[in-house]
Fold:
Amino acid sequence: MTRKQRRLSFIGAAGGVLAVAVGLVLYALTGQIVFFYTPSDIAAHPIAPGTRVRLGGLVEDGSVQHGDNGRVAFSVTDTQHQTKVTYTGLLPDLFREGQGVVAEGVYDANGMVTADNVLAKHDEKYMPPEVAAALKKQGVWEGDKQTAEKTP
Amino acid sequence: MDLSFAEIGHYSLVLALALSLLQSFVPLWGAHRLDGRLMSVGPVVAVVNFGYVALAFAALVAVHVTSDFSVANVYENSNSQIPLLFKITGVWGNHEGSILLWILILALFGALVALFSSNLPDTLRARVLSVQGWIGTAFLLFLLLTSNPFARLNPAPMEGQDLNPVLQDIGLAIHPPMLYLGYVGFSIAFSFAIAALIDGRIDAAWARWVRPWTLLAWLFLTLGIAMGSYWAYYELGWGGFWFWDPVENASFMPWLAGTALLHSAVVMEKRGALKIWTILLAILTFSLSLLGTFIVRSGVLTSVHAFASDPTRGVFILAILTAFIGGALVLFAWRAPGLKQGGIFAPISREGALVFNNLFLIAATATVLVGTLYPLALDTLTSRKISVGSPFYQLTFAPLMVPLLLAVPFGPMLAWKRGDLKGAAQRLAVAMVLSVIAVVLALFLSGAKGVLAPLAVGLGIWLIAGSVVDLTERARLFRGSLSTSFARLTGLPRSAFGSALGHAGLGLTVLGITFVSSWQIEAITSVKPGQSIPLGHYQLTYVETTNGRGPNFRAEVSRFQVTGDNGRSFTMAPSKRFFSARQSATTESALKTIWLSQIYLSLGDRSDDGSLVVRAYYKPLVTLIWLGGVVMAIGGVISLSDRRLRVGAPRKARARKPAAEPVST
Structure:
């Protein structure tokens, strides 16, 4: 092999691997990403049942019902609309009624989300960013007030 | 306020900034003018600079330990009631302190280069120290202008707000310093690359100087990531060890690129080839470290790692990022074509194998980069919010890893320049047979439910067996008397053991991940006292919940009696902690290690009728995931102790082989 052929074969190999990587990324980006919705988004644009969603909002007051074996049902609200969520597992330590939450799971034909992951605030400073943005959009954001209270 | 540590610290930082500016330009100017006196300023300033940064850091530790709540940083992140350990680790458990730790480690590496590089050509050394000075200046400016850790509060509050309970763990003492030693350690490779580009010349000796520093950074990053993963595993209570969270990816990308750099530097040192590529990798690796700092510290993401979100900080880090990455790449585009290429090799050769490694590692890094940045870009451009989770990486990252891992054992078997693939395969026959046996065994034992997991087991065994074969082949075991083989083995360079351990550690991690992902047993249920949960070969009986107290928290401890089928019995006690200062709670999961496997027990809510929601896992071979990382790091340490790579003792090395120190001034 001449030096030129050698170089071409390396460039070809590199191009091949990169092409495979790009192909994999594009394929995965079309099928494996999860969109974020608020209950109002769902009300405005119906989602196909079976779609994976991240649902964000506040846990509606009085909506949390504990079932057997760690089953929980609650509603997520953005004060305009509500979406019901069922979940089996341990809720985060800071999961509370009236607090921000993100539930990730499958949207079903009954308009409910079967969550396999529920995220709440990490601590009093943390609000899932999508929820904060969605609540700001709805005009019910109180985060700035909270931080103002904390300042000595 | 008679001692005023805070003012001492603040003043030290300002002095360190002045020294960094000096370090940024004087040695560089000296190198340009070939003025030995100006160049000799570099090492002195680098060491003194480290002294002042260390003093500032000590001052911050002092205000934290003495609980001086007149300092905002202490008020917001500490409390008089927390144990001393968390008062100290709380120093970097916040934005300002963690940036100071970043700068401390940068200054430490700068001082180490100054002290252990007297065998470097003077101009290269001067330029390396100047580039370190630029980085130091940028981050000190960032700290002083946007994130002063010594800012005062007036009037001083009586009590602090407490450290985030999630961070009140021994993990905070280990994870960030290790990770930063890795992140920031790659700045040395970056500085060497920039210095070489300015110098306009580069040779194999350059790789020999850069390799130990890269190895050092890499091994700390490996440990830092492994520690972070274990911490998330036991602290977050989800039982997961890796979430493909952007913050995790931020540390994983420099690791992948750094691993590639480690391998390409070998080619450059041994064969003088891949020079330009190695320079580019050094730039990319540190760029990814900077990107990681940006992702984690700028507040573009909200997570437990993002301590505060102040837009000016984000913009400032973005400016640093753009200046350094952009500047470095422009310099590269301008100067790299002028560097002399060297060393030709056939595609099937050790060099070819290492190019293969680089190609796949960089492609994998690129997929992680896309998965990390795409949601951010989409949010910024269209304000559409998406999340990219593990399914994305299973489809992109994993397929790229498979050919790479399959190829790993072949690399060390191939000769430099022109290798013999068939011969390598023959020598690896034992490893192949073992892997096939492992696949069949795993398939049989798991009830033939799927083929992917057994194949992955085979891959792990292939990596481990391949490493063993690598060593036995070098020792020519079974091809002579046992004593000559042993003599050969002990006579091998330590870097041979280092690379074998590195690859074997990778195999262990692959095995751990496969076993946990495929064969863990999970039970989520609610129990009342006296009731049992069956979990594989174990029965977990809920005994009672009692109240306890910690220094700054109240705890509800639930005791479980665990009985194995083999009659073994022990107690596990997961708990919930309530921190009054922050009105927050954490779940402390309980772990019981049985050989390499673990039982993992985490708690949910307790309802009024006394029943408790429990999540229990049996995690087979889970500890291998992190043990593999530790083995990789041990491999790094052994390689580092290799005479040929030793960082220190330059004088001795020069005396031993005078011809091996080309002077390129």
